[in-house]
């Protein structure tokens, strides 16, 4: 089987809640998502999606996905999409770095491999665990009272894991954590995600001020070293995210005992092939994970669901249904939240059927 053509579509994904805000005054109102379509000479077509969280979250931006596909795509024509390790080596040889550019192609090729073998991607990634997986709900940064007021509604939707966007003024963040923690019920989990927003001394202050609160602290500071220093002065379970973008730093973080949970995002690692390697290593090392992506719609959510549901449940801390945050649906067959949980499709591949009228005219065409 050979790749004959690679196309990409640009889709705007507005939010039901209008704006998503996090540390340092960063926000997004309409997400700019790229849906990648890989065609083959066998007639099988696979889809992937890459949607950065704006241009200022990770080293990734929406136009960069499309520009990178123009650079990388021609090298992949004629290659077998089912030979994923080989294909990833080829992508790394043709374009150094830029993992997020490769992610959509890699996901689309897993979709093709699934269709070619008649198996869902989660089975190919190791096996399906359980009926569904638990979701977290991100609480966009607002005043402490506004954030606390959101908890009841999200719990009514079935969520029991709440990721609070902090990383602002430390005194306000202390109030945010206390206000939301006061709304928790038995079985709920609270994560305070600073998204690199605190300077080291501020992070230590916040952790000490919420010492008696049952809360996870996620990525308090910009650098790995700052986070490690905070971790060593903090009693809370600790999550690393933005700094963990490859196996070298993941192994270092394990050796340093720098985290209890790690947040792995598909496009941060460069696709399902590479994140599977990191995921399996975390299982072997006893590190639980939040498995997700930076953002996305139906197709990204489908890929996340297959990754999450092929992970042993005790190591899956939580995952995300981004498609429930956005008002535009790009595919049928994507996971739909039920009681705060979602399930990967049982159909071959990702199990999605793209809505071609929503995708519109391709903005990238390589080959054919
Ligand atoms: Mg995070």
Question: How would you explain this protein's 3D organization?
Answer:
This protein is α/β, with parallel strands linked by helices and 368 residues long. It has two domains: 3-119 and 354-366, 2-Layer Sandwich (Enolase-like, domain 1), CATH 3.30.390.10; 124-350, Alpha-Beta Barrel (TIM Barrel). It is built from 13 helices and 18 strands. It has helices at residues 62-76, 84-94, 99-117, 121-124, 144-156, 170-181, 200-209, 224-231, 247-255, 266-269, 272-285, 298-309, 356-359; strands at residues 3-14, 20-21, 27-28, 30-40, 45-50, 133-134, 136-139, 161-165, 189-193, 216-218, 238-240, 261-265, 288-292, 316-319, 331-332, 341-342, 353-354, 364-367. The strands form five sheets. It has an eight-stranded parallel sheet. It has a four-stranded antiparallel sheet with strand order 5-4-1-18. The chain has a two-stranded antiparallel sheet with strand order 2-3. α6 links the parallel β8 and β9 (189-193). α2 runs antiparallel to α3 and α7 (200-209) packs parallel to α8 (224-231). The longest helix has 19 residues, at 99-117. The protein is globular and about 60 Å long. The mean pLDDT is 98. The chain binds magnesium ion. Residues 193, 195, 218-219, 241, 263 line the site of magnesium ion (MG).
Number of helices, counting only DSSP H or I runs of 4 residues or more: 13
- Within the largest sheet, what's the order of strands? 7-8-9-10-11-12-13-14
Q: Average pLDDT across residues?
A: 98
Assembly status:
single chain
Q: What structural category arises from helix and sheet content?
A: alpha/beta
The rounded Rg comes to 20 Å
Using DSSP, what is the number of strands? 18
User: Into which percentage range does the β-strand content fall?
Assistant: 15-25%
Tell me the CATH architecture of the largest domain: Alpha-Beta Barrel
- Would you give the CATH topology of the largest domain? TIM Barrel
Low-confidence stretches: none
First-to-last CA distance: 15 Å
Shape designation = globular
Total domains: 2
């Amino acid at each position: 089987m050979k790749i004959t053509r690679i196309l990409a579509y640009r889709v705007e994904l507005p939010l039901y809640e209008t704006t998503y805000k996090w540390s340092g005054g960063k926000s997004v109102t309409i997400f700019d998502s790229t849906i990648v379509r890989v065609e083959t000479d066998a007639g099988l077509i696979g889809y992937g999606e890459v949607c950065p969280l704006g241009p200022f979250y990770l080293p990734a931006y929406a136009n960069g996905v499309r520009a990178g596909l123009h650079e990388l795509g021609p090298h992949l024509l004629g290659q077998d999409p089912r030979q994923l390790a080989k294909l990833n080596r080829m992508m790394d040889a043709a374009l150094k770095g830029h993992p997020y550019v490769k992610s959509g192609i890699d996901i689309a090729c897993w979709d093709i491999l699934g269709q070619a073998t008649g198996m869902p991607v989660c089975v190919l990634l190791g096996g399906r665990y359980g009926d569904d997986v638990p979701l977290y709900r991100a609480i966009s940064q607002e005043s402490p009272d506004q954030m606390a007021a959101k908890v009841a509604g999200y719990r009514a939707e079935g969520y029991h894991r709440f990721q609070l966007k902090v990383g602002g003024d430390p005194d306000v963040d202390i109030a945010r954590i206390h206000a939301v923690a006061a709304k928790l019920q038995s079985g709920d989990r609270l994560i305070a995600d600073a998204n690199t927003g605190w300077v080291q001394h501020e992070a230590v202050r916040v952790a000490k001020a919420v010492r008696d609160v049952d809360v996870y602290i996620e990525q308090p500071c910009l650098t790995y070293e700052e986070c490690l220093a905070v971790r060593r002065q903090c009693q809370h379970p600790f999550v690393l995210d933005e700094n963990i973008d490859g196996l070298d730093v993941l192994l270092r973080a394990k050796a340093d005992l720098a985290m209890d949970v790690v947040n792995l995002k598909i496009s941060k690692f460069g696709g399902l092939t590479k994140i599977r390697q990191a995921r399996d290593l975390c299982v072997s090392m006893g590190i639980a994970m939040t498995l997700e992506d930076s953002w996305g719609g139906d197709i990204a959510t489908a890929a996340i669901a297959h990754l999450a549901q092929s992970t042993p449940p005790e190591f899956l801390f939580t995952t995300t249904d981004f498609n429930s945050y956005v008002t535009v649906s790009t595919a049928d067959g994507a996971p739909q939240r039920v009681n705060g949980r979602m399930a990967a499709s049982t159909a071959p591949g990702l199990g999605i059927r793209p809505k071609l009228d929503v995708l519109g005219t391709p903005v990238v065409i390589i080959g054919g």
